Amino acid sequence: MHKQIFVNLPVKNLERSKAFFASLGFTFNPQFTNESAACMLVGENIYAMLLVETFFQSFTKKPVANAHESTEVLVGLSCESRAEVDELVAKAFEAGGNVPREPQDHGFMYGHGFEDLDGHVWELIYMEPGAVEQG
């Protein structure tokens, strides 16, 4: 069995967050989506669980970070092209997200990112094929 990863993120307004990510092209598994949580399909065996803050809080005794004030996680996501990186950032901005910095072009690797409606940072990268093997 392949391992799966579930990134759990607290959100203030689940329906608004679902609409935001749907506008970026993500879909949700209805089997694991209800009024407290939504299971967003990110890739093969990769999921983001968008959890209403009160539900998220039930999993920890620590306070829930306000991602608009501090960074609790950087979610890195690979893309298939530079164009896909730019398209996702543009869609996120159009849907109400924040774009806190300019793209980073390192020749073999290109990256850009956005903050979602709750301030979580999504780092998008494209790496030229063969770049890893070349060192």
UniProtKB/TrEMBL annotation:
Designated name of the protein: VOC family protein
Residue intervals of the VOC domain: 3-127
Superkingdom field: Bacteria
UniProt cross-references to Pfam families, sorted A to Z: Ble-like_N (PF22677)
InterPro entries per the UniProt record, alphabetical: Glyas_Bleomycin-R_OHBP_Dase, Glyoxy/Ble-like_N, VOC_core
Annotated CDD domains: VOC_like (cd09012)
PROSITE patterns, per database record: VOC
SUPFAM superfamilies, sorted: Glyoxalase/Bleomycin resistance protein/Dihydroxybiphenyl dioxygenase
